[in-house]
Design brief:
Elements lengths: L8 H27 L3 H7 L21 E3 L3 E3 L2 H6 L5 H13 L4 H4 L2 H4 L5 H17 L17 E5 L1 H9 L6 E4 L12 E4 L3 E4 H7 L4 E5 L9 H18 L4 E5 L6 H6 L5 H12 L7 E4 L2 H4 L22 H8 L20 H10 L31
Parallel strand pairs: 3-4, 3-7, 7-8, 8-9
Antiparallel strand pairs: 1-2, 5-6
Helix pairs in contact: 4-7, 10-12
Length: 391
């Protein structure tokens, strides 16, 4: 039996040509990678280091780092990133420049945490993108989105008898309600209510003991026997106090509900012209970033802008069955925050530093309306003499 034939010269030439093409392709890929400044990272990790889309990033919603909201808008103060022990922006900038020029000098531009193996160039690029987005989007208003009932499990509703109606007829599971008939901006801090897990408690005590994710506020109607500017100013200062006690909460200012036509024309103080004036003034407190303005009136008003007689029995409150429509409407006005923790460091900002940062982030006053001093309110017009429309 004859030996097996060796490869012919033609077969050998074909194999050598194929091997040469493979080597050439690999060499070209390596040269292109070096030109883009990514070869060293690719060879060391074996994975692609293309930066992820910014829309896929999330940031922990804490006092040491704000948030990326709606998966796009970033609002992260540089000082917070530094305090959290994450990325030094100057070094991140230097690193980006080094990477754009090639791998040369990359180690010098890295954050110390990265050199110790805690971070990576990929994460540094991601955080740099966050900082750039924060600058670009810091003044852009956020938009509402539809949410489910579980969105309100960390919510606090503050208000008068209309909020009492929300609590009694269509409460959200898990939400907290600090509400009482007849209260207003001047009496709220002297009012205590019964809340599960806390007993009889005041608003300041509640907000200093628990941090809420969202706070809904509807007040002022019961004080319209006073000057509208005074009520709006007091409302603005109350918002500032709430922000100081719960610095990370989203605050939703709810417009005061209109009254019926018959109620409005029969009362010189509690009428829809004054309610609209008050609503307009308190709406200026909203920045559409951390404080939002919600107006449910279009849901219940008639063609002339009054609370429809079809929806009210007393002219000042909607029927009980309509509160469910109100809560359904609130579900279309969510601000969604999704987040993950910063992975670079275990270091945390100290409570004192956090409190300092929080007070520095407190919302600005609502213009001239919120600058009215308590002393400007006539002594005979204090809350003890008020007319209660929140029966």
């Amino acid at each position: 039996m004859s030996r097996k034939q060796r490869f012919s010269r033609k077969d050998q030439a074909a194999l050598l040509s194929l091997l040469f093409l493979l080597i050439l392709g690999s060499l070209i890929f390596f040269i292109v990678s070096c030109f883009q400044g990514k070869a060293s990272a690719f060879l060391s990790t074996g994975i692609s280091v293309s930066a992820p889309r910014a829309s896929a990033l999330r940031v922990n919603s804490t006092r040491t780092a704000r948030t990326i909201i709606n998966s796009v808008a970033a609002d992260i103060p540089v000082s917070d990133l530094q305090a959290a022990g994450t990325v030094d922006p100057a070094k991140a900038n230097a690193q980006s420049a080094a990477q754009s020029q090639g791998a040369e000098g990359q180690a010098d531009a890295q954050d110390p945490a990265q050199q110790s193996g805690e971070g990576s160039s990929l994460l540094a690029q991601a955080y740099q993108q966050i900082l750039q987005q924060a600058e670009e989007n810091k003044d852009k208003p956020l938009t509402f989105t539809e949410v489910g009932s579980d969105y309100f499990t960390d919510a606090l509703f503050i208000g008068d008898s209309r909020t009492v109606g929300l609590k009694e007829y269509a409460p959200f599971d898990g939400a907290t309600y600090f509400c009482s008939e007849g209260i207003g901006t001047y009496t709220i801090l002297d009012t205590t209510v019964e809340i599960d897990g806390y007993g009889e408690i005041g608003l300041e005590s509640l907000l200093t003991q628990k941090q809420f994710g969202k706070i809904y506020l509807m007040l002022g109607l019961n004080e319209l026997y006073l000057e509208v500017d005074d009520v709006a100013g007091r409302f603005g200062r109350l918002v500032d106090q709430i922000r100081g006690w719960n610095p990370d909460a989203l605050i939703f200012i709810q417009a005061n509900l209109y009254v019926s036509y018959g109620y409005s024309v029969s009362d010189p103080n509690f009428n829809n012209d004054r309610i609209r004036e008050l609503n307009e003034k308190i709406s200026k407190k909203a920045d559409q970033r951390t404080i939002f303005y919600l107006d449910v009136n279009p849901l219940f008003e008639d063609e002339w802008g009054n609370l429809s007689d079809e929806y009210t029995g007393d002219g000042a409150h909607v029927y009980g069955y309509l509160y469910e429509e109100w809560t359904d409407w609130l579900k279309t006005k969510g601000i969604v925050v999704q987040s993950i923790d910063f992975p670079f460091s275990d270091s945390k900002q100290s409570p004192d530093a956090e409190n300092g940062a929080a007070s520095g982030e407190a919302a600005d006053g609502g213009g001239e309306d919120s600058a009215v001093s308590e002393e400007s309110v006539p002594e005979d017009a204090q809350p003890d003499g008020q007319t209660d429309t929140g029966e």
